[in-house]
Design a protein that fits this description.
single chain, Arc Repressor Mutant, subunit A, two-stranded antiparallel ribbon, globular
Length: about 150
């Protein structure tokens, strides 16, 4: 087993990546809909689009945030004309969030942005053998849990 000192370079590289992501997370971008959207906004729109609509509880679970945080974000995106709230036909007390045509356009543009912008990294992941890919996937899950422990 590796000791702490031996693992420090890997931890530092991960720390640099997380710090850069934190900077990116505060940078808005226009995904072809005539307005700047922050990563949290476009990720919400794209998640709703990819799910074909979702409830607040489902979105809160997907993002690891409270239902109140999701409700606030959804309200902002409804005001911007990117999402719409509808009553669930199967359960009238439940609200389903879906994208508008403008929201779908933003989501499609967002996915295309990542296909182009992240091409090298996606190619790297795509070329990994099954065991290596499984190790990367497990590491991502472990990092998620690692960060959860900082939030308590």
């Amino acid at each position: 087993m590796r000791d702490f000192e031996e693992m420090m370079p890997v931890l530092q590289a991960m720390g640099r990546s997380m710090a850069k992501y934190a900077m990116i997370d505060r940078k808005p971008y226009d995904f072809g809909v005539g307005m700047d959207l922050y990563p949290v906004e476009i990720h919400m729109i794209t998640t709703v689009e990819r799910k074909g609509g979702a409830g607040v509880t489902e979105l809160a679970k997907a993002f690891g945030v409270t239902k109140g945080a999701v409700s606030q974000q959804v309200a902002k995106l409804v005001k911007k004309g990117l999402l719409v709230k509808k009553s669930d036909p199967e359960n009238g007390s439940k609200v389903i969030v879906t994208t508008t045509k403008l929201g779908k356009k933003a989501s499609d543009s967002h996915l295309n942005f990542h296909k182009v912008h992240d091409k090298k990294f996606l190619e790297y992941l795509g070329k990994l053998d099954e065991d290596s890919y499984a190790a990367v996937a497990e590491m991502a899950e472990q990092m998620d849990g690692w960060m959860d422990r900082y939030l308590v």
